[in-house]
Write a structure and sequence with these properties.
- The chain is of the alpha+beta class and 159 residues long.
- It has two domains: 44 residues, no CATH class; 84 residues, Alpha-Beta Plaits.
- Helices cover 35% and strands 16% of the residues.
- The protein is built from five helices and four strands, in the order H-H-H-E-H-E-E-H-E.
- A four-stranded antiparallel β-sheet has the order 2-3-1-4.
């Protein structure tokens, strides 16, 4: 069970970070804590498995990235983690993760999200990944986004 302090910490973090040089300091002030106390409690909640991660939701369209694609490969299980590490090092890749295959219809197990301002740029980036990571001989699909859904983080408590 979460106590009242933990609920206030989670509510403060889930409602978004202020765009300031010390966001944890400012968030701490909203609940009457100093920065170090807030950071320590967040570490404890993470270590207990209550919080998995703190991440950013980027609104790509608003930043001019309208040609987004999920690129998927069927990579042998024994090398997929190593290849995934290589793929995630590229600055135009925002997500890279492993999923189970859904055979026989979906053989892909490695996924990455690529963003570009135009479709050709995104395709070139997918091709670059394939070439530079030595993946040309593995099955691949480039799935361009056709619709945009509202992106938001998880909400557990009222802001």
């Amino acid at each position: 069970m979460l106590n009242d302090d933990d609920q206030r910490v989670i509510a403060a973090v889930q409602c978004g970070f202020p765009l300031v040089s010390r966001p944890f300091q400012e968030l701490g002030q909203t609940i009457g804590w100093d920065e170090e106390r807030l950071l320590e409690r967040l570490r404890d909640l993470r270590d207990q498995g209550i919080i998995k991660r703190v991440g950013v939701v980027v609104h790509h369209h608003e930043l001019g990235f309208a040609a987004n694609a999920m690129v998927v490969w069927d990579i042998p299980d024994e090398t997929v983690r190593q290849i995934g590490e290589r793929i995630r090092s590229f600055d135009f890749v925002s997500l890279c993760y492993l999923r189970q295959r859904c055979l026989p219809d979906w053989p892909y197990n490695l996924y990455c999200m690529i963003h570009g301002r135009e479709r050709d740029e995104t395709q070139e980036r997918a091709d670059r990944l394939t070439a530079e990571c030595g993946l040309a001989h593995y099955p691949r699909a480039v799935l361009f986004s056709r619709r945009r859904f509202k992106q938001c983080g998880a909400k557990y408590f009222s802001c």
